[in-house]
Specification:
The protein starts with 6 loop residues before the first strand and ends in a 23-residue tail after the last helix. The longest helix has 11 residues, at 264-274. Helix 2 packs across helix 4. The strands form three sheets. Strands 1, 2, 3, 4, 5, 6, 7, 8, 9, 10, 11, 12 and 13 form a 13-stranded mixed β-sheet that branches. A three-stranded mixed β-sheet has the order 14-15-16. Strands 17-18 form a two-stranded antiparallel sheet. The chain folds into four domains: 7-94, SH3 type barrels (Roll), CATH 2.30.30.240; 100-161, no CATH class; 178-275, MgtE N-terminal domain-like (MgtE N-terminal fold), CATH 1.25.60; 291-404, CBS-domain (Roll), CATH 3.10.580. Strand 4 and strand 5 (57-61) form a beta hairpin. The chain has 427 residues and is of the alpha+beta class. It is built from 16 helices and 18 strands. InterPro entries: CBS_dom (IPR000644), CBS_dom_sf (IPR046342), Mg_transptr_MgtE_intracell_dom (IPR006668), MgtE_N_sf (IPR038076), MgtE_transporter (IPR006669), SH3_actinomycetes (IPR058838). Keywords: CBS domain. Residues 354-414 form the CBS domain. This is Magnesium transporter.
């Protein structure tokens, strides 16, 4: 593990306070949610179970956790208050892993799990459980000094999915390393029953990524099998333009119910995107480009570009606007490509290097003109600006290609080298 990477023993978090960025307590830590993986690989940490007012227990994804220490947990402040429901692929660390009897791989000795430690992966927000603190001796024996040790996760056996049958959880672990497009290809060829099982077991962010790569019919089918509250969460996790396209495929009543369950800002973005003509720049754009104020620095811009959740097309450039800096913004000033950001000192103000010559696209610009614009200026994305000069969003080259390709292109067999596994009960 690289120096400086935080490691936290999970039992030390039991009952600690969870705070929002303003320092207000939102609840207390009650458990850690992890997903076991095949071949002795460290489990991935999915999130926390937090007890809030009224003893309600909710799920807090690790993507919304900005700090984990022995005395406190800090969040982004964005919390979904829907009651936590454990899924088939999820394991509660405090409730299910501690006190379990496992074996040391090298000696075969049976030991008891006292604690596990998680660490954050370098340059990423992902966390893994990499250490296990165990006690030698028979189950229930009193602890004695010198009989405990901390080992790598892979040094013990008794946790792995290989010990279970091939249900959705085992299948999901097999597919874990696949890119979203490749997993979507596999899902498309599963039976409806097994497709629903795997989709239900995926976490919201992973399912959102996969849905974006599926044909419309599969998207509607999978979304229809989810509980409405979770369907709304998954739509919020999707890119806004893809979520709006999926909502447009639903009956009006279903669409309105889901919009009512979404966060107001996300629902407003969806309604705004659906108001534009299909195939226009407004209908193709995403409402979440990188927006900076004129007094931001190159260092600020590069920190935003580094966000691993951004697609390469969205990370290729930033847009400088007057406040407010969320779409629709104040007056659009111009664009800066990330290559220009790399050529200037970190303290440089973005206002001094912004490109004001590149023309933005009106929201009613039609698809052929959008495609030509990207080709002429060698762009991965282009700003969409309304008559008042406010930035509405950005059109990316991947969304343009999606609409230029034949309508059934996602349903064609992908020759990516992905091998379809043998799946019991529902191939």
């Amino acid at each position: 593990m690289p120096a400086g990477s935080p490691r936290v023993f999970v039992s030390h978090l039991a009952g600690v306070a969870v705070f929002d960025p303003n320092g207000d307590q939102v609840g207390r830590f009650r458990d850690l949610v992890a997903m076991l993986r095949l071949a002795g690989r460290p489990p991935r940490v999915l999130g926390l179970v937090v007890e809030v007012v009224g003893r309600r227990r909710i799920f807090l994804p690790m993507t919304r956790v900005t700090g984990v220490e022995s005395g406190q947990v800090i969040t982004t402040g964005v919390i979904n208050m829907r009651r936590f429901e454990q899924r088939p692929t999820e394991t509660l660390v405090l409730g299910e892993l501690l006190d379990r009897r496992v074996r040391v791989v090298e000696t075969g000795e049976e030991v008891t799990v006292l604690d596990v430690a998680m660490t954050q992966l370098p340059a990423r927000r992902d966390w893994e459980i990499d250490k296990v603190h165990v006690r030698r001796g028979k189950a229930g024996a009193l602890r004695r000094r010198g009989e405990t040790l901390t080992v790598e996760w892979s040094a013990v056996t008794g946790f792995s999915l290989e010990e279970h049958g091939q249900g959705a959880e085992n299948l999901l672990a097999t597919f874990e390393q696949l890119r979203p497009a490749d997993l979507a290809n596999v899902l498309h060829h599963l039976s409806a029953k097994r497709r629903g099982e795997v989709a239900a077991a995926l976490d919201d962010d992973r399912l959102a990524d996969v849905l974006e790569e599926l044909p419309d019919d599969d998207q509607v089918e999978i979304l229809g099998k989810l509980k409405e509250e979770r369907a709304a969460d998954v739509l919020e996790a999707m890119d806004p333009d893809d979520a709006a396209d999926l909502l447009s495929e639903l009956p009006e009543e279903d669409k309105e119910r889901l919009l009512a369950l979404m966060r107001p800002r996300d629902a407003a973005d969806m309604r705004r995107l659906m108001s534009y003509e299909e195939g226009s720049a407004g209908g193709l754009m995403t409402t979440e480009p990188i927006v900076l104020r004129p007094d931001a620095t190159v260092a600020d811009a590069l920190s935003r570009v580094r966000n691993q959740d951004l697609t390469p097309a969205l990370a290729a450039q930033v847009y400088v606007c007057r406040p407010p800096d969320e779409t629709p913004t104040g007056r659009y000033l111009g664009t800066i490509h990330f290559q220009r950001l790399l050529r200037d000192p970190p303290f440089t103000l973005v206002a001094s290097i912004v490109d004001t010559d590149l023309p933005p696209l009106p929201p009613d610009t039609q698809l052929p003109v959008v495609a030509s614009h990207l080709a002429v200026y060698n762009l991965l994305a282009a700003p969409v600006v309304d008559e008042s000069g406010s930035l509405l969003g950005a059109v990316t080259v991947d969304d343009v290609l999606d609409h230029l390709l034949p309508s059934d292109w996602r349903e064609r067999e992908l020759h990516t080298g992905v091998t379809m596994p043998e799946v019991a009960d529902g191939r």
